[in-house]
Amino acid sequence: MLKGFTVPRTPRGAAALAPSPPWHFAGDVLAVEFWNDADAAADFLPSGIELHASRAGRSVALFVDCQFTAQGDEHLDPARYQCREFIVLLDALWQGSEIAWCPYAFADNDAVLAVGWIQGYPRKIGVVRQTRTFAAAGAASAVLVDGARLAASLSAHGQLLAQGRVTLRRKADHLVGLLDRPIVARRYFPRLCAGLHHKPAVDEIVRCKMDDLLTTNVWIGDGDLVFPEAHGEELEMLGPVKVGRGFRFSFSCAISDTEVLADLAAQDSR
C-alpha cells in the first residue's frame, strides 16, 4: 500500500513533500502596514469577498523566517524544514465578517509550497531575507531596542519584488491591528482535461485556521515598504500609496484544519 500525505506516495511514505498534519510552525516576523489603491486591490478579490469599507486598501506585508515540524521531529532536519516566506494580507469582508484576504504569497521551500497550496495560500517560489537577531549582542546582531533598524526583502527569478524596513520604537504586550482577523484564501486546483480547463477540480474559499497562536517579543515602530515593478509579476499593483507601522515579533502556531466557507466548483456545476 502506498503511503504519504502528499505526492509522491511511496511504499514507506518518507518521500512525501510534506508530512501528515498537524504542522507546528515557529519563527520571527518583520511586518509593515500599508495602504494601496482600493480599486486595484478590489481586482484581486473573488466573488463574495469585498474590501472593508472603512479600511479600504489597508494591507500588511509579512516577511517570515521560520521552521516547522510534524510529529516526527522534522525540525531536526533543518535543510528540509526551515523556510522563509512572504505574505500579503488585505483587510476585507466575507458575508459581513472581517477577514484578512491573501492574494499573494512566496516561500523558498518545496514542502512549505505544498502545505500552502493545501491550505489555500497562493504560494510561489521566492527568496526571502530579513535582518536576524542573535543572543550574542554585537554590531551585527540587531539588538531589539528603541531605534533599532531592521530590513527584509523578497526576490524571485533574479528580480527584487518587495523591500521593507522597520525602525523599532516601543515594545508592546500584544499585536494591535495585525493578525487580529481570520485569514481567508482560495484553494484552486485546475483540470488539464480538454474542455475542462476553466472548470477546476477544486475551487474553495477557505479559512486558514491556526491553533494555539502565540506571539511574543512584540515591537512596534515605523515602517517603510516598496514593491518594485517586475516582469512576470503583478505584486506592484498592490504597491503602497501610504505606509504605516512596522512590526517585529516572534510566533508559534499549529495547523491541522481548514474551514470551507464556499465551494465555488460545486456552485458552478449546478
Write the layout of secondary structure elements.
Elements: E1 23-35, H1 38-42, E2 49-51, E3 58-69, H2 78-81, E4 82-94, E5 97-107, H3 110-119, E6 123-125, E7 127-130, E8 149-156, E9 159-172, E10 183-189, E11 202-208, E12 211-226, E13 242-255, E14 258-263, H4 264-268
Structure report:
With 270 residues, the protein is mainly β. It has one domain: Acetoacetate decarboxylase-like. The protein contains four helices and 14 strands. Strands 1, 2, 3, 4, 5, 6, 7, 8, 9, 10, 11, 12, 13 and 14 form a 14-stranded mixed beta sheet that branches. The longest helix is centred in the middle third of the chain and has 10 residues. It is globular, with a radius of gyration of 19 Å. The protein starts with 22 loop residues before the first strand and ends with a helix.
Summarize this structure as a short list of keywords or feature phrases.
14 strands, Acetoacetate decarboxylase-like, 4 helices, 270 residues, 14-stranded mixed beta sheet, mainly beta
